[in-house]
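[job 0417] fold request received: High-affinity branched-chain amino acid transport system permease protein
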Amino acid sequence: MDAILLQTLNGLDKGSAYALIALGLTLIFGTLGVVNFAHGALFMIGAFCAVTVSRILNLSYETVDPTKTDFLGNPLKVKTPYLEGWFGPEFGGALIDWSVPLAIIFAIPIMVFVGFAMERGLIKHFYKRPHADQILVTFGLAIVLQEVVKYFYGANPIPTPAPDALKGSADLGVLIGLDPNAVIYPVWRLVYFGFAALIVGAVFAFLQFTTFGMVVRAGMADRETVGLLGINIDRRFTIMFGIAAAVAGLAGVMYTPINSPNYHMGMDFLVLSFVVVVVGGMGSLPGAVLAGFLLGILESFASMNEVKSILPGIDQIIIYMVAIIILLTRPRGLMGRKGVMED
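[job 0417] inference complete; emitting structure tokens
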């Protein structure tokens, strides 16, 4: 029971990242009909927003501390963060400690701007072009963004820790009646799952219960008719591109304590996220979320030693095997609209 619960939690953790990236991909494909291979780069940019905020908050100045000396007896220079000098060690230190959650405030406008610039500057010129052209140009854009990040931040992963209060692990087994220490799970991974559920719920609520969202859903179903009603659907779709970029960026921000940001992390998630979208159904938002969590759980159980001893390497191919089966039996995906991916 404890092993099953632990693997389920691992699957939900992986599925959270898959679902958030796939949700943004599906928003773009469902509204604009664009296959955006640069979406993984948006996840990476969000992660490096967190890195940037952490570096800014840790900017320091040097002072001489007469109470500390080197082996020759000379006073040592110590670095004091500006925030601690301005606001005191307690409040300033707390701001530095909570740099990752605070990066959300910084990342939202940055990611929306990046999304707007990407859509208006490049992708709008490929709306009526074949999907192959869209894939080539957005994949090229992803490589460019990746190399830009590599130039400014280097090739090595950059550790970005979670706040001290959210480090460590929680004993979840005790909460459901299992023995103490039976199910120990990192607190930040639980936070990430809760954050992903909040973002997914917010996106669905926005599309379902706001006038803007209703118009967007109508435009996804019949763009031409909505345009004939005098509604500037293109502007709304551009805004949705910005929202999709923000969703991917926020997923990257909160993922930094789990996996230290590096310049190729976007590519690592991109292929898996497209598999998630295809399995869930191209253009289906509920399908993207469902497939993200489902495939995350399957991958987690496939990584168990008991399973790998019977089927070596199954954890590396399980997601692709599921995708092949789905495409052969139901080309539209689990929850895809009829006619999509069936031509």
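[job 0417] notes: The domain at 2-58+100-329 is CATH 1.10.3470 (ABC transporter involved in vitamin B12 uptake, BtuC). The CA atoms of residues 175 and 264 lie 38 Å apart.
[job 0417] exit 0
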